[in-house]
Design brief:
Arc Repressor Mutant, subunit A
Length: 108
């Protein structure tokens, strides 16, 4: 089994969660919002390219948009092989985290 990198995992899960509205900007906003960290556009597109090369995502071009100077968005979707990899990494993490104590909740 070849595991995903953490960055690939985060990007792939974000694509899955965005359900058909996953393109560079929405993926980046989703991840930045979840992590509270700035993700450069390169930090998104490098793993996207790797995921595409591995056959874990497929892409398609949206319609050209006047608002974007006639350019179209490239959308991403998780392939069945990508879903298989996500299930594998989740299984590994579940086993590794099993029995780990829960953090005490801080009261405000």
């Amino acid at each position: 089994m070849k595991l995903l990198s953490r960055q690939e995992e985060i990007v792939l899960l974000s694509i899955w969660q965005l359900k058909g509205n996953a393109y560079g900007v929405t993926i980046r906003e989703h991840i930045s919002g979840l992590t509270g960290k700035y993700w450069s556009i390169g930090a998104i597109y490098v793993p996207l390219d790797r995921l595409w090369e591995k056959g874990l995502v497929e892409t398609w071009q949206g319609p050209a948009a006047k608002k974007r100077g006639g350019r179209s968005k490239r959308y991403y979707q998780v392939t069945p092989e990508g879903m298989k990899h996500l299930h594998e990494i989740k299984h590994v993490q579940d086993v590794l985290w099993k029995g780990f104590p829960r953090a005490a909740r801080s009261e405000k």
